[in-house]
Amino acid sequence: MIKRPDAPWQLKTDLVTPKTDYLNRRQIMAGGASMVAASSLAAPALGQTSGPGENPALNARATRYTLSDDLTPYDAVTGYNNFYEFGLGKDDPARHAHRMTTDNWSIEVEGLAERPGSYSLDDLIDQDALEERIYRLRCVEAWSMVIPWIGVPLADVLRRFEPSSTARYVQFFTYQNILEMPGTRFPVLDWPYREGLRMDEAMNELAFLAVGLYGEVLPNQNGAPIRLVVPWKYGYKSIKSIDRIVFTDTQPETSWNQSAPREYGFYSNVNPNRAHPRWSQASERVIGGGLFARRETEMFNGYEAQVASLYDGMDLIRNH
Ligand code: MTE
Q: What residue segments make up the domains of the chain, in order of their start?
């Protein structure tokens, strides 16, 4: 593991919750008000969690966004990844992502907004506003993980750019560097990786920009230093290592939709009723839960109450 220099927006160590308290704290949170109903299926025992790694700790307020399911063990969260810029294997990101340089990160903001420009992480992330949200990440490959993310609501960040009233969509791009990202030597996707949301989806309270997980700064393989987490959509919408944001009035290109439009739509809402052309989406493998641990996939990944109204009147099979 590469030791990362202190992130400028990291709290001083004396203010940070000791990492050993992490799981205890999580149990307290789980006892509090839970916005999302407990899974109807019994969650399997997940076994030993290794605990956070070596990245600097982040302090964060716990919020009401939590799940009663067991957390996916840290080793699985950081060792079983999709980050095609580092290769197609699930362990490629953990092996290669240390090559990515995330110092002095900036995000270019362009398009239909009053305040375009280049923003540092410090400009964008108010460390006092960091929250912890436990969201399930449900991959289109029919597996899922429950991850304690740390970050801020996407809406709070986007508002700073003062999007124009004509901005109907927002597009995100991942950092690209062929020397650091061996997977980008191959035209697996049209690099750089890109994703997009309709503005009202982006401004929904659940859409989240993560800068950490498990109480620490985001490991590179999980999309350091800043990535999207859109919990009601398939994981591929949750674009990693964002370095460019563009406000547009037309539906933007997204990497997976460009590469296989029949398989991956623009909306990409978790929908157990729409099978992927090559496999069912009715249930999902619980990563870290043992060989046979599965759960039934929920509409909008369980967040129907918060997001279904965004899609009123839309055919969610056609608009997949
Ligand atoms: N972002 C980039 N830049 N490149 C990718 O390959 N994969 C997506 C998404 N974001 C991907 C990405 C997919 S398919 C999933 S399931 C999630 O990241 C996985 O996030 P995780 O590795 O943190 O679990």
A: 13-311
Measured distance CA(48)–CA(128) in Å, rounded: 31
Cβ pair 30, 66 in contact under 8 A: yes
Residue-level pLDDT at 7: 54
> pLDDT tens digit string along 76-120?
999 999 999 999 999 999 999 999 999 999 999 999 999 999 999
Q: What is the DSSP code (8-state) at residue 134?
A: E
Regarding the beta carbon of 172 and ligand 1, being less than 6 Å apart is answered no
In the chain, the N- to C-terminal Cα span, in Å, equals 39
- Encode pLDDT of 5-56 as tens digits: 455 545 444 444 444 455 554 443 443 333 333 332 223 232 333 446 678 9
- pLDDT at residue 273 greater than cutoff 70: yes
- State in Å: Cα 31 to ligand 1 middle: 30
Beta bridge partners of 145: 137
Based on C-alpha coordinates, what's the Rg of the chain? 18
Q: Is the CB of 238 under 6 A from ligand 1?
A: yes
- Please tell me if the CB atom of residue 239 comes closer than 6 angstroms to any atom of ligand 1: yes
Please tell me the residue having the least CA distance from ligand 1 atom 9. 236
What is the number of the ligand 1 atom nearest to the C-alpha of 174?
A: 3
The CA–CA distances, whole Å, from 103 to 7, 42, 220, 241 equal: 8, 42, 12, 12
- CATH number given to 13-311: 3.90.420.10
